[in-house]
Amino acid sequence: MAQRDPLKDFLVELFGPAPGARNGRTGQPTPEPAVDPYRTFAPVAVAAAALAFYAPQLADTAITDTVDQARQIITTVHGYRWPLGALASGWSALDLVRWRGHRQRLALEAQLRQTTRHLPVKVTVAFPPGIGALRSAKIRLPRGAIIRPKEMDEFTTAVRGVAGRTGTYTYSVRHHAHRDLILITRKPIEPDTRSPRHKALQTALAAGTIFKEPNVTVHSCNDDGIETGYKITFTPSLNSGARGFQAKVDEALAALAGDHESGRTWATEWTPSEGYLMMYLRAPLPTRVDHPLALVDENLRHLPYATGAANLSLYWDVSTKSNKPHCLIVGPTGGGKTSVIRTLLTEASRRGIPFLGVDPKMIELDGLEGYPGCAAIVYDAVRSAMLVRALHAEMMARNHYVHVKKIEPSQLPLLIAVLDEFFILSGKWQRLAKDEDEEIRAQVKQLDPLGAWADLAVLARSAGIRLLLGVQRPDASLFGSSSGNARDNFGTRISLGNLSQDGALMMWGDAHVGREVDTSIPGRGVVTALDGSPVDAQMWWTPNVDPHPNKWNQLSAGEKAIVHGLAPIESPTFEFFSTELREFVEAERALAKRAREFGDAPEPSVLTDFPTDHDTVDDEVADAIPASAVTEGMAILLDEDNGHPVPVTVDTVTVVRDKDTGDVVETVLSINAGGRVKTTVHFDATEVVMLPEPDTVLTTA
């Protein structure tokens, strides 16, 4: 292998290959370059100037005194030494600039050839080309040259990487395909006056793949010049319109922006159809809001119950025109569900709307018994079934009245029906339907509370009846086959505490909503906003309104003032359209009065001809859940042969679902009864199981 000559390589690079030269490795003719070889005549001027400066010394050593003519020439040249020196310096500087331009043209030619595989026809750079960075350039391409976008991006990156190393300029590379021309221009980089927050947002969005072509601009600043809002533009995509995607981006943007100096929190408002979103500041949610004594909303059909961002009051619209007529509240024990129910009912009473309710635990709504506007609070499972059936009769009577009188449904008086702890109530009804007493089974079958409940949820809106449902956890079995499409009618929704992934999907249609609630703040949750979207909110605190000394004496002076201030001046009027509901309320009030007088309630056999034992375990259980929600290792209550429930531990759970819809068809629980003997219990889609304590896991000795 022949050795390479460094001097020859330098000269070839400096002056370019000779025309018609061949490649030393391949033997093929070298393509004629677009950049002409570099030619310089500065050495001639430098040599002449040097001769002029050193002419006397040369004359003394090389020329004798007899040669007068030579001496005269040398003297004349020496007299022009300074002009010749200036000429040599200027010529050298000019050649240095030309050399710099030549190097830049060679670099552009090489970059274009390597990235696009095209040999340019001509490369021209601005004169002077710039010592530290390229000023501008024009590259003439072969006629009809095709450059793909990816190749153009690579060439642009190469130009910016080499020509812009100084960091002082930014380069624009434009390809004019119709002219077979590439233009390169530069402009000074303006000083970056953006704030660290602005830089962090732009850098993160530009480096990520969340948006295409994102750009962050400052939208607003406060009086101190601190940025308070940003506008982020992007190219619209399918993801930008998805609520789950937006929620993730909102969380990421808030984390990038960090805590604001004002103490307010970041929020976003999306306009995906136009390709932008707004980041703005909003007041943080309060940690406690006492029930206001003044009417926050003057609309008597709006029942406010919580405060959202920017001190916005959130309400339940119970008007006939409402598209969210019924309300669903989900919250664990101690999560504030009872206080929210008290808030809604006291607000209803202030606005002249009566209510009645069912409390299977006998501890949640008992304080409202006797409150202005309260028709009755029912605790017994049988009488609860009778109430649901009476409400159904009331609904039918109201609809008949509207039909006969030819009036608008909005003219009917409103009535709110509360069913708290619906799972426990449903479990009691199912157990009564399997009771050993044939008369009890026949009575429950005739009442059909679940069927009546399904009709109420779907049809009660036009009759002026509003349903307020309280449960500890959402589940599809809550509105199973017996309840039809009841869930769709509960447009006003409130969730307290953190939901599971399935619970979030069931409640909000999004697996991410309601799963990161700050449970250290009592009353914090997610509610339905005025536009129907889920938003964070702080529930109002309404103390127990029970006037009994044992309850009243536990309240502080401020809480007592709230209770007194909430009491309506005039108690709401009850208007019954059905004999069934009127007689039921009258009987229930008589039972409650007798209970207060004698300290104990009589057995409901007076009305139903069969006894109900209030001292059973049913009234003391802490919770009930759908059978399909049971997990392995969980403790549940099962009835023994004598009818008494006992706690057992579930070994395995098998949930059978419909292949087409995915709905629960059957749940099979395997119970270890001791030793190797196992008991299998089957539950249908709507059945629930009772828990001795919330989510208890039994331990073996």
Provide keyphrases for this structure.
alpha+beta, 18 helices, 25 strands, 34% helix
Question: Rg, please?
Answer: 44 Å
- Percent range for helical residues? 25-40%
Mean pLDDT: 81
- Uncertain segments of ≥5 residues (pLDDT<50)? 480-484, 604-622, 694-701
Q: Tell me what portion of residues adopts beta-strand conformation.
A: 15-25%
Secondary structural class: alpha+beta
Morphology: elongated
Largest sheet: 11 strands, mixed
The overall strand count is: 25
Number of helices: 18
Cα distance spanning the termini: 88 Å
Q: TL;DR of this structure?
A:
By secondary structure, the chain is of the alpha+beta class.
Element layout with pairings:
Layout: H1 6-15, H2 42-53, H3 55-62, H4 68-79, H5 81-116, E1 122-125, E2 136-140, H6 149-163, E3 169-176, E4 181-188, H7 196-207, E5 215-221, E6 227-233, H8 243-257, E7 265-271, E8 276-282, E9 289-290, E10 302-307, E11 313-317, E12 327-330, H9 337-350, E13 355-358, E14 374-378, H10 381-405, E15 415-420, H11 422-433, H12 438-447, H13 449-459, E16 465-471, E17 492-496, H14 501-508, E18 524-528, E19 534-541, H15 549-552, H16 557-566, H17 579-598, H18 605-608, E20 623-626, E21 635-639, E22 645-657, E23 664-674, E24 677-684, E25 688-691
Parallel strand pairs: 9-19, 12-16, 12-17, 13-14, 13-15, 15-16
Antiparallel strand pairs: 1-2, 2-4, 3-4, 5-6, 6-8, 7-8, 10-11, 10-19, 17-18, 18-19, 20-25, 21-22, 22-23, 23-24
Helix pairs in contact: 2-5, 5-6, 10-11, 10-13, 10-17
